[in-house]
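Fold this: Superkiller complex protein 2
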Amino acid sequence: MASLPVPQICSKKQNSCFCHPQPGCLCMVWSTQPENGKGRWIPGLFWLSWELQSHLTYRPKDTITDLNTWEEAEEEIDFEKDLLTVPPGFKKGMDFAPKDRPTPAPGLLSLSYLLEPLDLGGGDEDENEAVGQPGGSRRDAVSASPCSTPLARASSLEDLVLKEASTAVSAPEAPEPPPQEQWAIPVDATSPVGDFYRLIPQPAFQWAFEPDVFQKQAILHLERHDSVFVAAHTSAGKTVVAEYAIALAQKHMTRTIYTSPIKALSNQKFRDFRNTFGDVGLLTGDVQLHPEASCLIMTTEILRSMLYSGSDVIRDLEWVIFDEVHYINDAERGVVWEEVLIMLPDHVSIILLSATVPNALEFADWIGRLKRRQIYVISTVTRPVPLEHYLFTGNSSKTQGELFLLLDSRGAFHTKGYYAAVEAKKERMSKHAQTFGAKQPTHQGGPAQDRGVYLSLLASLRTRAQLPVVVFTFSRGRCDEQASGLTSLDLTTSSEKSEIHLFLQRCLARLRGSDRQLPQVLHMSELLNRGLGVHHSGILPILKEIVEMLFSRGLVKVLFATETFAMGVNMPARTVVFDSMRKHDGSTFRDLLPGEYVQMAGRAGRRGLDPTGTVILLCKGRVPEMADLHRMMMGKPSQLQSQFRLTYTMILNLLRVDALRVEDMMKRSFSEFPSRKDSKAHEQALAELTKRLGALEEPDVTGQLVDLPEYYGWGEELTETQHMIQRRIMESVNGLKSLSAGRVVVVKNQEHHNALGVILQVSSNSTSRVFTTLVLCDKPLSQDPQDRGPATPEVPYPDDLVGFKLFLPEGPCEHTVVKLQPADMAAITTKVLRVNGEKILEDFSKRQQPKFKKDPPLAAVTTAVQELLRLAQAHPAGPPTLDPVNDLQLKDVSVVEGGLRARKLEELIRGAQCVHSPRFPAQYLKLRERMQIQKEMERLRFLLSDQSLLLLPEYHQRVEVLRTLGYVDEAGTVKLAGRVACAMSSHELLLTELMFDNALSTLRPEEIAALLSGLVCQSPGDAGDQLPNTLKQGIERVRAVAKRIGEVQVACGLNQTVEEFVGELNFGLVEVVYEWARGMPFSELAGLSGTPEGLVVRCIQRLAEMCRSLRGAARLVGEPVLGAKMETAATLLRRDIVFAASLYTQ
């Protein structure tokens, strides 16, 4: 039951609220600070909590006399005279004077009449003031609160109560769109903020350094509760923006969520933010620390689960910080970011932190339209530490000085340095050939060559005081080889060795004895002792954290790492080295993209320590091409692209709720943004067309004109059918082969209507073939398309529609040479002329010059024109054309059926009666205008409907899969199996089917864990022959269930083949997981598989998460035995070094 609002009262008149606060009220309160008399507007909810806190806090200096004085002051308040009616800074306010009201007729007394004196609307407030509009100032935006919106008078108390109830439950209405719907607002990051400390005299957070301009601009917008997109280079200081948002939330007593793409980055940020703010929690798949904290660090998947489950955390949420937003381009996990952004409530403000991307405004515009609020885009290309890029061609102590500047700190590309590097490399290769023969060294070189290159490079860098250095190598194996090859290199002092030794002892003490003796642990300890480190996914997580911490302390001088080290936490080096500019992206070897290069190169240069950062590209083989280097170093980074795709979990979760349909999720995705951003314009155009259609005069279709609508429809259908057939011809191999030089074609486009032409030359560009063609015409074509007249007749008669009524010049026959696309050719004739294309083109080009404009054409040109004219005169209805089925051998069903339909339409058109009426032209034009408007309206309705969604067919196919498997019923209601699938973190269909088939219940916990490893293992390999028979049979059963699901998907129309679906399973670590679950020490697992230790740990960690999901699902369906087994399996997996606590959380 909703209660009537009670006005907020302040005894000392130092605070005033211009609305009636209700539960959850976020209205603005003018608060005066007693110590300095200054006032400001603050959210009423926060003011109320602060006031209560101030009154409830024990004050030693307050005496009984003071308390009595306060009570007396409160008792002496005059509620008639002492209350403010005009908020400070406003011209108008509340009018509590009684108003004259008409007296109702006797006996007709309604509740609305009794409630009318309660002036809930603010009197005669000027509605023309732009209060609460997007883009306004903080003070202007106060009336956008739901609490400050005037309540409409209700006709009954029931209506009022219902409206109050609905207002309390529903989300606040989105603000009205700004003029022209400009949702992405670019902010000039070079404009200084001179009055920063005047605008924010008491910042929520302060740093030991002066914030940069772009940071100050972002902070100003955060103070206004705006959403921001900050795009800046690596190490530019984007974290400052996140820190201020966390401090603001703590000041407002609300919550902030910081999301990161990977768990390791979440752990690092947890340590950093906990040291700064204290009240910080961490939520990952296997760790929950302080979930009640005001700032929560989590992966994006955890936040998505909270949104689907309706977590209470979301209610108190003020900010969500998305770090590394460019990770949305990840093909596998990028969809999670889109889901979260779509489902976030409108009251949550968004902070997006990203590397520099070219389409930041487009991405912000999508989010702004999605949330109906402006997103302020702050982009800066300025680096706090400028970079210098070099090529290194040395490979020994004699050549360690071969370092050539390629790109300076101002961004200038030095070709002189490039050619010097080429010359140095060429000279050495020449000497090599003289000594060892003509055989050149390999591009990458072997371990010995690598060792020589790195020893000479590191000696040079050490001499020039350019350590520490990060060496990016795009292979785990090469990282290990290069670090292991530098056995003679020792870069640490005795005091540094002591510090490293003590740190290692302290960190490794938490491991059991055998784990501390693992080969990888011993090898890494030896490397670290000499100042070397290795960082990639194959390294044990605790060792990676040790390497990161020692590197941040400056104790690791040389770090060999893969590109994952470039993501996230700020760990800059003095120098960055690229082992190669080529990488394998999972499918092929390719050059680094500009965005990838910039992300890794950005680790060079330590702010406050280095004047410039140094980036070095090793040239072990030949020097790369200058164009490739220029593109990689100075090219535009990759755009943010949607990776949105439909998953069964998403569909089932959305089918269970009424708030958001699957179609709505697709409609709001970034992939649909280009077609959906003009929806409002489409709606306006549709409304205008509807008015136009209503104002048009109906065509007269009586008498002879009775078949006029059918005639128009037949003509439109015939044209579409002919275009379809011609398109199929042009897409076929035989069709393109027939379009060789000399082929006569019928040209039909904007300039020519059924004019004969002969192909002179065929060429190809990046997208299609281009046909240079000589075409007949009346006179030289005007350059202005408006002066050419219509290419097709305004009112087509049967001769214009059926066949090809060829163009014949009315005066002297002229010709032109044009470049045609396949779509410009209406037909391919059977005629081929012998022409000299080169001579004709040369002559035509010459006669286009003013000096030779009046020269007669060559004989070759004249002959070709005469042949075309003779052919047109001999066949006025069109020359014989190549038959797509008989001549071009097209067996496409649509082509055959289209040809039959075209002939039927031609018969109908020839027999039409309307063309004989004298009123035909006028009535045809009326009908055509009406039909064209209706066609455009249908197009707009389609664009505005769900039917235009790109993924709608796939959605229907996946729903059919779910319906076939029994996860949803015919009405789309989620059944028990569907609810179980929602509880799975991955492989929802396969796991649910295994559970309902009782394929797991009969197995022991360690056997279940071993089988399920095939769903999470990422390392290729076979299960091996040493497995127990139960596991071998279990593997075959899992594959059989996967095959059945794959067959259902194929039957429902999905593109994924059965082999591809079954091929996603990988049972290479079944034996390893089985023995680990049975208690085998980790040190003995290495002999069972060649998989790197880090990947084994990752597999077991993901497997434990899957076991917990299955445990919850088993309880959901009432399977206590299976639930207990999954609980046991998870317990067996969670032990020793595999689940050692992160060093960042200790």
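The CA atoms of residues 395 and 454 lie 8 Å apart. The chain has 41 helices and 26 strands.
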